[in-house]
Amino acid sequence: MRLTFPVKKSYSAHSFKKLTKPLTAISPLIPEMVSRGNRPLKMTFEDQLNALIFFHLEEHTSARHLVQTLEENDFARHHIAPEGGISRSSFSEAINERGLEQFMAVFEQLQKQAGSLLPKTHASLGELISIDGSLIDSVLSMDWADYRSGSKKAKLHLGFNINQGIPQKLFLTEGKSDERPFVHKIIEPGQTGVMDRGYQHHKNFDQLQTDEKHFVCRIKANTHKTCLEAYAVAADSSVFYDAKVYLGQAGQKQTQAPLRLVGYVVDGTTYWIATSRFDLSAEDIAHIYKLRWDIETFFGWWKKHLRVYHLIARSKHGLMVQILSGLITYLLLAIYCHEEHGERVSIKRVRELRTKILNETRELESEPSEVRGRNSQYILVAL
């Protein structure tokens, strides 16, 4: 069934509608969210989606803050809030109990759309996916978010497409969950997972090679290595070691399949990088590992400027909805910045967009009430 997204007719919603325009193409692919009983939904999926995009875009700090804005701000009341408004309890129920299937579908389809539009950097190095986990501070009442005594945390496991600067796959677990098993779920055959030392696992290295999934992973300096074949390194290179090896001691979790080990020094720090990529130079391998920091930069920017980790939900369902909405907002911004400015996402362009929405809000507030009423009639469009 093709979904129709109700948007109120007014020129003052121009910038927000331009941001959310990519949702038009994927709307037929999103499952319909229906009421579980006889009563109509107080907040449709489209209402949820718009409200949470607005939440992240405008840096709201809590559900209470957002609901208050939906009640008191002209722009939010006319273009974001459900018709008739929404109470805090109804908003909380919607976020914590409904919409997860729809949000996941929007994220997956929007990620594909962004992947087909955004230019690829480092294309000669192959499809690079940085993998990392991020802890989310939780409250003690979130029993599912087990971490340690007296502390609750959830953990987001994320794959980040380095070539295009966008999130790719995600999983949410309790905070003490091991990160390494998620590598196989995040990486597709032919892709290269780029990982820090916490992901070193010799059996996993073997399985990744069996599955034709590549990896570039920093390992511990004291890891035992058995050299099978050494490769020449340039005298003027930061690389001092390049060889085909087995990792680990025989009979003690040694890799079954040989892999490549590259050693290099940058700013006095020594790096040992295990990889299945024999098709690149040692300098390329070192460069790929340096690109792993892109996911750290993304996490930092995403948390700071979209307020993704300000909890508005306490159930695992609700937190996943919140995280998905934050990723959806980022993907929409990535497409918007590319189409409007030919650039990647930056806080400069996000602030410009926020200013445009603010100015359009002022235009709406300055309209005579009878004109404002005429401009606020609903039309049905596919967002």
Outline the structure in words:
It is a single chain. Strands 2, 3, 4, 5, 6, 7, 8, 9, 10 and 11 form a ten-stranded mixed β-sheet that branches. Strands 1-12 form a two-stranded antiparallel ribbon. Among the domains are: 5-107 and 306-381, no CATH class; 197-283, no CATH class. The chain has helices spanning 14-20, 23-26, 45-57, 63-72, 74-79, 88-97, 100-117, 182-186, 202-210, 282-291, 293-306, 316-341, 347-366, 369-375; strands at residues 5-8, 128-137, 146-148, 151-161, 166-174, 192-195, 214-218, 225-230, 239-247, 259-266, 269-275, 378-381. The radius of gyration is 24 Å and the shape is elongated. It has 383 residues and is an alpha+beta fold. A hairpin with a 2-residue loop joins strand 10 and strand 11 (269-275).
What are the SSEs and their pairings?
Blueprint: E1 5-8, H1 14-20, H2 23-26, H3 45-57, H4 63-72, H5 74-79, H6 88-97, H7 100-117, E2 128-137, E3 146-148, E4 151-161, E5 166-174, H8 182-186, E6 192-195, H9 202-210, E7 214-218, E8 225-230, E9 239-247, E10 259-266, E11 269-275, H10 282-291, H11 293-306, H12 316-341, H13 347-366, H14 369-375, E12 378-381
Parallel strand pairs: 2-6, 6-7
Antiparallel strand pairs: 1-12, 2-4, 3-4, 4-5, 7-11, 8-9, 9-10, 10-11
Helix pairs in contact: 3-12, 7-12
Return the string of H and E elements: EHHHHHHHEEEEHEHEEEEEHHHHHE
Going by helix content, strand content and strand pairing, the class is alpha+beta
Low-confidence runs of at least 5 consecutive residues: 1-11, 370-383
**How far apart, in Å, are the first and last alpha carbons?**
14 Å
